User: Fold these one by one.
Assistant:
Number 1:
Amino acid sequence: MSAIEKAVQARESSERNLRPETWSGVKVMNGILKALNIIGMLGLVLIFALPFAWMISTSLKTLPETMIFPPEWIPNDPQWQNFIQAWNSGPFLHYFFNSVLIAGGILILQMLTMIPAAYAFARFQFPGSGILFGFVMVTLMIPSQLIFLPVYLQLSSWHLLNTHLGLILPFASSAFGIFLLRQSFKQVPEELIEAARLDKAKEWKIMWKLMIPMARPALITIALFSFISHWNDYFWPLVMTTNETARTLPLGIAKIRETEGVATWNILMAANLILVVPILIVFFFAQRSIIKAFVYNGVK
Amino acid sequence: MGRIELKGISKFFKDEEVIKNLDLTIRDGSFTVLVGPSGCGKSTTLRMIAGLDEQTKGEIWIDDKCVNGVPPGDRDVAMVFQNYALYPTMNVYDNIEFGLINRKVPKKEREKLIKDIAEIVGLSDYMKKKPEMLSGGQRQRVALARAMVKKPQVFILDEPLSNLDAKLRHQMRTELIQLHERLGTTFVYVTHDQVEAMSMGDEIVIMNKGVIQQAASPMTLYNDPANVFAAQFIGTPAMNILPSQELQLPSAQGKRHDIASFGFRPEHALFHAPAAIEGLRLDGMVLTRESLGAENIYQIQSSLGMFSVKTFLEPLTSDTLVTVTVPYERLYYFNSEGQRLRQVEVRRGEEIGTAQAPELVSVGGGL
Ligand SMILES: Nc1ncnc2c1ncn2[C@@H]1O[C@H](COP(=O)(O)OP(=O)(O)OP(=O)(O)O)[C@@H](O)[C@H]1O
Ligand SMILES: [Mg+2]
């Protein structure tokens, strides 16, 4: 910026400050609202961030330090070896591998079932399409506590308890994902599809080259939610396993609590951090796509 | 070759008949413009030609092939949409290439075709950009390039310029005309702007409520409209149409027929007609005057109704009460259905009807 421009800008801003309406009631009200808004958001951030900070802080303390009151936020001597101890307190590599396999397997299977289903519901009117979609939606309303027993019995009769497949299969598809993806497929302007048809694109090509890339933000969001919820899932693996073969990280962490006589909070938190870090990393990279998924608008 | 023939086409949406028994032949290599008010079925007609909508009845022929049931991609038709419909996740190059890949054009050839087309529409520097980063005019060019690169028999353009500002629209209009001349392909172009239609088309099809009112060259439409609708659609201001009941209009065959109304173009009415001119005299009061520099437009109230007059290169009249003369040969007659009654009109070189002497017919002012 040249010196002249700067000078002009400075003068303009000083003039703006002098203008009487700057201090009118409306402006002041707006200012207060804005301030309240920011304070509110800061409050929200605190609510979500505090437990997190607490977890990190605790994971770096010695056991006696975790009991000090008032608590210390920053430990004097960070205990990095807590992580090693947590990792070595059980077959964590095994749990980790199981978690990756199961959450990943669910993710892949869900993509394979969700994309075609959502595509069909979004693009085609076929006999029974309305009723079928209604069925999909209804499954959203059934709590898992209601169906875990029949599923357990079913898996048991198939001899799938204590197997990875048994933990994957119940989540082979996701009604929520189908719903969300269908919405985002429906948002693709009809003209684009028509243009592609004029470009001699076959249906699968329209799906792969046009619709899926355009639904990418939604896909990433769905994938992320699916992965996180199954990565963190405690209930299903607990119910469907009776030995270590297919147990996942959350179960392994819970066991730290059981095995030691006293609750070793610092080790527990270190293990929790190990559980969370992969998700944080994924989030970090997917953040922009997630935001896009919620404010998506097509090119005019 | 790209001759299109629509034979007895009807289109229903649910129970609503949007296109009614339409017959139309579009010459090979012509620049045919469909015009008409909003909702008259222009887009629907185009979409049926392109194969995006299936007609309810009738046949569509492209060249010597009936294309009923042929999917859009196999009709050798390219379309430019009003909103361009560029693929937002692909860059300019990929947008243009998409149709070629689907047509299984080899890579080498694709590269050459795209390079050529990019130069023609002036997009060479933008090939790697996504559509969202382009201006309206540039997007329009990409849409054109994407259509042109397929070398179709028929180009279909649905209001391609309506999203551009006036200056760019003018420029693109010229470019499209040049493009048509260079390619020699059939263009079917939809607009609801009559100026666009007149300046671009060599054949204009005026539609209203799913029915073709008239299909002819621009000059024929102007000089020889088939009905009131066509007469009023072309020309600014529109042709004046006034009731003729109380009027003894001279007619070529002496008989009055069932002339219900008559019309004349604003630019054919004269303020200072030489006495020798035989014509209709209309007295009226000037309501408004608009001066556009070279031309002036007046709104005049007469006892028959309001009409407008356009003069060229004449000073603006300040009179309030005026008498306007319309030469008889400039009058158009219409029956009660709005159809032209050509056989009774008086035209230059014809004898004016004998039964009714051509004494001046005068109409009083509406005061
Ligand atoms: N998919 C549809 N379903 C029901 N009615 C439709 C559909 N498409 C168009 N129509 C109706 O058909 C008529 C003609 O529509 P069309 O789009 O062809 O008009 P148009 O001449 O292109 O108008 P515009 O100048 O506004 O684009 C309209 O009355 C419209 O409501
Ligand atoms: Mg239209």
Note: Chain B has a mean pLDDT of 88.
Number 2:
Amino acid sequence: MTESINAGTNNTIVLEADKLTKRYEDGVLALDELSFTIKSSEIYAMLGANGAGKTTTINLFLNFIEPTSGEARVMGIVTHKEPLLAKEKLAFVSENVMLYQNFTAIQNLDYFAKLGGKKNYTRDDYRNVLLRVGLQEEAHNKRLKGFSKGMRQKCGIAIAILKDAPAILLDEPTSGLDPKAGYEFIQLLDNLRSEGKSILMSTHDIFRAREIADTVGIMNQGKLVMQAGRDELTDKDLEQLYMKYMAGHMEAAA
Amino acid sequence: MLKLIIFKELREIILSTKFAATFGVCSLLIIMAFYTGIKNYQSSVQEYNASKAALFSQFETAKDWREVPRLTVFLPPNPLASLVMGISNDIGRAAVIYDSGYQAFRDSVYSVNPVFAVFRFLDLEFIFLIVLSLFAILFAFDAINGEKERGTLRLSFANSMPRATYIFGKITGSFLALALPLLIPVMTGLLLLPLMEVPLSVNEWIRLLIFIICGLLYLGVFLTLSVFISSITKRSSSSFLFLLIIWVCSVLIIPRAAVLLSGNLITVPSTSKIYYQRVQMQMNNIQELLKRANEQINKIAQEMAASGDTSPEAQKRYTDKMSEVYKNLQEENDKKISAYISRLHEERYNKQKQQERLALGISRISPATVFTLAATGLCGTSLELRNNYEEKVLTYSGIYSDFISGKQSQPAQDNIVKETVNPREIPDFYYQPKGFSDILKDALPDITILLVFNIILFCGAFIAFLRYDLR
Ligand SMILES: Nc1ncnc2c1ncn2[C@@H]1O[C@H](COP(=O)(O)OP(=O)(O)OP(=O)(O)O)[C@@H](O)[C@H]1O
Ligand SMILES: [Mg+2]
């Protein structure tokens, strides 16, 4: 992990949603002209109620679905036009990934690292990254079958770190982590930011979001209803803001 | 990338406990099938030799070729038939020869040991039929939707990987993961053949190897089918259910249903019906025959009256003429009836063939049937065995009757005290199975169908996955 790509050293835009719109086949408008940008060394936290469109946004960046209109771009590459190229620049941590149950933690890491194009990692690299995400050493060579949800989540995070891509997408990464692991995870994100990564994270955890994110966006029914930088947030009470926007939009919807 | 996926698939399957358990059982079954097959072959060789020796000793007690008992010929044991039994246990192994003909075959394995007829034998073909298909289903039913359920599909496709590479690697990897380990017990079994001194010709070895390749193709059919089904169903539990239903249909239901269906579509007249038709025709003809006889006899009587010649010579001439009329009419009638009967038999035979072809045609929609047909064809135990055996016995009966009438026409040598019969003079009955190229030619359509099944299902799985919703 020495050859960490510092995505264009400073403040280049890495992730960009440009009027991103998604209407599912059944007519549900999941995203409505969503736009935001995330620079290198920046953490963006997406907040929003269930069904607000967070996962849909991440799926669009990964080209798992095609946008109805608008574009998602990774370092200028339009994801639905050149998905393979775009995905080289993306690492992904999904919610509740089970991974391969018959493989050990290290075997899982090895497979996904190679899939991500990293062929030169040694066992030590795997050991170090697992220690870094907080998985005790005695678990490294155990099959994932016996792992708890949190332990698997740690492996998932380790896989994303190993890919060493300029952008990291995380869909509710802290679900399943205990408070200590949650705290360590925040530290880890901080580290990754200082390595120059651009991080898009969806979460329901407003307190952690405020603690770590450079920018917080609140989504409701596919729209970004509020976006604020870290500096603005220190003065405002995010929780109240969040509730206010949620409530306001609930009323509007009603 | 492709290699990575293939190896991952291999490791994932082989490292699972599910694999350890099922592989153990499968290996045991396969080796057992070889072992019992060889044992059965050895005992049938002994039985064959004993029956032949018993017959010879009967011949030796005869003082003269005029007094020899009827000759029985036996179907020699075929080592391949002990691995792929086909119909070899159902047909009689012994045929009694009489004047350029033979009596119905007797002493089939199942008639001698009826208990086997109830449970059938556990031969290699049966084990392949059941084990390979279930094995493929068990390990590939959740190939795609299972990965989705575990989130690994999303995680894998978060990398720059083409879908085509993934699905190709997945099918190849799981095929290798199932086929390679199964080749271990198969190889062990093959090794048992020379170790237990089963004489196999080169031609038989090649046929056995082609049979094993057919087994792999059959495995491939169910594997690609499983991958296909798992990429068109949402949940792995439903794909498992679907596959189980397909398995039951193709292994258990279609082959039987096809026979029933073709039996309903094409009715083959029974032999008793033919007999009844013959009797009816005779009855109908008798009226006409009598009428025509009366007419002709009357004519002769009138002729006789007109001539006025009443000498005994003349009378004899006329009665001779009359009996001539009867004889001619009788002969004509016999000819007519026998032509009619042979036509009925021919029709029956054609219908039977038609029914057989239809049944096989319908049942070929099941890969299991196709595999069985290819396997029995290759090992010489298909329906052809019976036809071929009958043909060979018929030819032989001609040879034997020439031989025996030659022997019997020699003047009896009463002055020589003891002229024993030497049964070794009897021309040998060789059951010559079909030639290698003929066998291959017959099996080729079924091997091709297996291949086509593979290609179609592979393409199906491929296309279904290219359109698959990865989320
Ligand atoms: N495949 C689909 N077909 C139709 N509608 C869908 C589909 N997937 C999601 N949706 C709808 O799109 C909207 C956004 O869903 P999405 O999963 O993006 O929400 P989310 O913000 O991730 O919610 P959560 O916090 O529960 O994870 C929801 O209204 C959902 O019902
Ligand atoms: Mg979500």
Note: Residues 95-164 of chain A form one domain.
